[in-house]
Request: fold
Amino acid sequence: MEKMLLKRVDIPNATDIDVAVKHGAYAMVPKAFEMRPVDVVNEVKQANLRGRGGAGFPTGLKWELCARVHGTLKYLLCNADEGEPGTFKDRFILHQDPHLLIEGMIIAGYAIGAERGYIYLRYEYPKGVSILEKAIEQAYAKGYLGKNILGKGFSFDLSVHRGAGAYICGEETALIESLEGKRGQPRIRPPFPASQGAWRRPTVINNVETLSNIPSIIAMGSEAYASIGEETSPGPKIYGVSGHVNRPGAYELPMGTTLREIIYDHCGGIRGGRKLKAVIPGGASTPMLTEAHLDVKMDFNSLVSAGSMLGSGAVMVMDETVNMVNTAYVLIRFFAHESCGKCTPCREGTSWLYQVYHRLMHRQGRPDDIDLLLYICDTVKGKCFCPLGEGAIQPVLSSIKHFRADYERCIKTGECGQA
Ligand SMILES: Cc1cc2nc3c(=O)[nH]c(=O)nc-3n(C[C@H](O)[C@H](O)[C@H](O)COP(=O)(O)O)c2cc1C
Ligand code: SF4
Reply:
């Protein structure tokens, strides 16, 4: 498959607009402007593009809901928070090909009728601020942003908004609150952002990778795009692979590539020739899988059938030396720290889980600790205000399900990995 998302990341200085344009950047802006906005929306709908931020919501449908509202200021937000442990795929686009994202945002803004856009950037990506701001400045200078773009009557302003370092601000409604200058906590839905989002105006919020797919859809047409990868989740996908593989990194592959192909063909197998123990397929909040799942296709539907989720496509690979109690401890520590505190099950549940793991990791495990962990998860499951709480219990539940022996050994002998 020819690269669409990472096609310019290896070109030296592709962050410079002249270099990027020489290699095709912004070529789809005039083409999209030849189409009616509604036709651009329909093209994205027919391409069956699903959001790459984690939930897999159909992008065209989201755009349509917002595009239908007329006569008001609308916003287009790019979610560049990328705070899920293990996830680093968006960074490649942000740092190495920002003009791809800006091009996608101009076309998206045109399609939905938004004249104002923001890129909400993760606090921990300080390098990204200057790269994006320079790229935006260059795009203004070349007439791709601002008033009456390319003389076609559409105006679009874009700027970067830096987060303050909270994972919850990647959740779309918390992101909106934060953008408005409030404390980053989720809003009740409905109303959904498409009807009442930023400053209560119709708003589309999309992930970096999602928006970066748009120029390719316009270039090749929805039919050709929809034929890539899996029928139910077509297109290319950036899998960010980390952990015990020989060649970790970001791999752009057709959606639905199997875990086995990713780990063994593209990443060169497990480091030191060891055995694979566990894989977290889509970022910290997606349930762990095992060697038995190597032939699972990495797409939205196949992973749900296998008992996990595609999430952000952040594949974390662990070899046989890893103790899964330790892995779950590290992840639950993160979630307990990042729980925004708005609802009791998540706020109390994650910190209670953390306390039990802390005890286990300090050789003070008790015989009924596995049951206690499962009980706490039950008090969290299905009772949280936003998906963070539900995601937080996944490492606990899946590690107990697949690696119960690690817990039993930890409680019995105190061998739990390194705290
Ligand atoms: C706790 C939490 C963190 C999230 N973090 C991100 C993030 O960093 N980036 C992202 O694109 N989506 C993130 N999401 C998903 C967003 O809420 C939203 O679904 C997404 O931005 C929509 O864009 P998409 O349709 O293009 O995927 C997060 C969701 C939750 C619950
Ligand atoms: S589930 Fe957690 S992060 Fe979400 S609103 Fe409740 S306390 Fe906040």
Q: What stands out?
A: Residues 13 and 143 are 21 Å apart (CA to CA). The chain has a mean pLDDT of 97. Residues 51-55, 57, 59, 79, 81-84, 167-168, 170-172, 205-207, 210, 386-388 surround flavin mononucleotide (ligand 1) (CB under 6 Å). The two ends are 43 Å apart (CA to CA).
